[in-house]
Amino acid sequence: MTAQRLDGKACAKEVELQLGHRIAALNEKGVRPHLAVIIVGNDPASHVYVKSKVKTCERLGIKSTHIELDASTDEATLREHILSMNQQEDLHGILVQSPLPNHMDEEALTDLIHPSKDVDGFHPENLGRLVQGRLDGMLPCTPSGVMRMLNWANIPLRGKRALVLGRSRIVGMPAALLLAARGADATVTVAHSKTEATRELCREADIIVAAVGRADMVRTDWVKPGAVVIDVGINRVDDDSRERGWRLAGDVHPDVEEVASWLSPVPGGVGPMTIAMLMENTVRAAELTIQA
Ligand code: NDP
User: Fold this and answer.
1) Could you tell me if the CB of 276 is within 6 A of ligand 1?
2) How large is the average pLDDT for residues 67-76?
3) What does pTM read for this prediction?
4) Backbone angles phi, psi at 259, to 5 degrees
5) CATH classification of 30-115, choosing from 3.40.50.300, 3.40.50.2300, 3.40.50.720, 3.40.50.10860?
């Protein structure tokens, strides 16, 4: 079997097309969606992600404000930025790029973002709504991107066994909640670093969502023939054969395409969907200001 490619780029393009109509409707009402992205420090991967978010905003006609702060910036300064942005009426979404420098309390800072502007979907109020099964709030972008991609490919979830590898606040746990939510109706197991017999659990799953951060961890013998495999992982692996000295790898070994029915590629799978969902949350935040 050669897995079908779960093409996040193509799915994201369709999302962008629909957003284009919603943005035009907002513009007619005198509203231009506006996203602020704050980045602290010099982490090269984070700068690449922010650049790509700003570029997507430009392409869609979403205004973006990009604030770069030095790694030595104190927490109080970042707090001031967030609090002042909360008050800014023409600003609809605020994103603080993770990771923040070690001297900052990332959770406390993102908690300061007003829930209506929390386009990352990490505020306890938005995550709390998700736990309650209310899916109409700001949903975390990566897990909601995974769900959108599964729906787009018409992959049935109801009654299926899903295994989520990873239990982080931003990917694993919300992905598990979304898969188990009414409407999706999968039966979900969450595995983490203390899980025993992870490989055997994986082999029982109809759907695997790998969000661990370990290159090529999920191997062909972890996957039931015909399973759907979503690779969230983005890992840099040393590779002297490349000019830049490294390559990008997912959490799933590429050979899994020999056993899976669907496999999302890295890059070009979940990554573009995460950005598309961020854009959608920003547009939604702008729409809510005129409905309020
Ligand atoms: P975290 O480091 O926050 O979480 C990793 C999770 O994996 C933890 O729950 C950890 O368990 C679990 N884990 C670690 N080792 C094992 C193991 N051997 N078996 C099972 N579970 C294990 O990472 P994130 O959730 O933030 O990200 C995960 C991956 O997804 C990363 O590669 C990241 O770069 C990528 N990512 C990609 C995005 C995209 O847009 N494509 C967006 C966000 C992240 P424990 O809780 O016990 O420590």
Assistant:
1) no
2) 97
3) 0.97
4) -115, -30
5) 3.40.50.10860
